């Protein structure tokens, strides 16, 4: 069994996305492949969870564009 990774970021922190975040088909209110948040977009972490199979932190981020997107640590940094 893999030990869960301790989250690097916490609820309420402002973060910036490092890459363009596009809809992989899991975001129901936007067309597949639609740009949800461009690299450099700033948002706030509204929830911290964990991906069950890989035990990696998942951050639910509300971006200024009003999209709420699940992100992993490699996709965001502190703003």
Written overview of the protein:
- There is one protein chain.
- By secondary structure, the chain is mainly β.
- It is built from no helices and seven strands.
- The strands form two sheets. The chain has a five-stranded antiparallel β-sheet, with no helix packed on it.
- The model has no long low-confidence stretch (mean pLDDT 91).
Give a quick set of tags describing it.
mainly beta; 79 residues; 7 strands; two-stranded antiparallel ribbon; 0% helix; SH3 type barrels
Secondary structure class reads mainly beta
Q: Mind describing the biggest β-sheet?
A: 5 strands, antiparallel
Give the overall silhouette.
Answer: globular
Strand order of the largest sheet: 6-5-4-1-7
Beta-strand fraction estimate: 35-45%
SS elements, strand count? 7
Domain tally = 1
Poorly predicted regions are: none
CATH topology: SH3 type barrels
Q: What gap, in angstroms, lies between the N and C termini?
A: 34 Å
Radius of gyration: 12 Å
Q: What is the helix content?
A: under 10%
Supply the CATH architecture. Answer: Roll
CATH class: Mainly Beta
Mean pLDDT: 91
User: Helix tally?
Assistant: 0
Give the arrangement of secondary structure elements:
Blueprint: E1 14-17, E2 21-22, E3 35-37, E4 42-51, E5 56-63, E6 68-71, E7 76-78
Antiparallel strand pairs: 1-4, 1-7, 2-3, 4-5, 5-6
Keywords: Nitrogen fixation
Family: Belongs to the NifZ family.
Protein name: Nitrogen fixation protein NifZ
